[in-house]
Design brief:
The protein is mainly alpha-helical and 133 residues long. The chain is 36% helix and 7% strand. A 3-stranded antiparallel sheet has the order 1-2-3. α2 crosses α4 (73-83) and α4 packs antiparallel against α5. It is elongated and about 55 Å long. It starts with a helix and ends in a 10-residue tail after the last strand.
């Protein structure tokens, strides 16, 4: 959306004549469908799975990886600012704050899998790579 609507077109001519914010509307729709993942968790850390039609499955597990729990801040933050609606950024920021508060007292690091209801680390490994970035 931002590339298509940038009047400077720094990446070359990428604007579309008939573009009417369709990508922004689709991003908004997707974010609204993802919000239920953040609801009904005691920590504010989102469920790892959400059905885009029905919400969080009733049999959903309460464990998620660190990266999945905290990586939506950039996307939700930008979307909130484009829409002028702080809901998405605030929601994602709460999850990041919850993770930050769960850092190890000894190392200051995060584990790799957390229980979204209790805040207990199910996986206590720290590192770089899939699930931990």
């Amino acid at each position: 959306h931002m590339i298509l609507t940038d009047p400077k077109q720094p990446l070359g001519k990428m604007n579309l004549e008939d573009y009417d914010d369709e990508l922004l509307h689709l991003a908004h729709d997707l974010a609204v469908r993802l919000l239920p993942a953040f609801e009904n968790t005691k920590t504010g850390i989102p469920y790892p799975r959400v059905n885009l039609k029905k919400g969080v499955p009733p049999d959903s597990i309460n464990e998620t990886c660190t990266a999945g729990a905290g990586s939506l801040l950039v996307e939700f933050g930008i979307l909130s600012r484009l829409l002028g609606d702080s809901t998405f950024e605030w929601t994602a920021r709460q999850a990041v704050k919850a993770l930050w508060n769960l850092r190890s007292n000894e190392t200051g690091l995060l584990g790799n899998v957390v229980n979204i209801q209790t805040g207990e680390w199910v996986g206590k490994q720290s590192g770089l790579g899939a699930g931990m970035d």
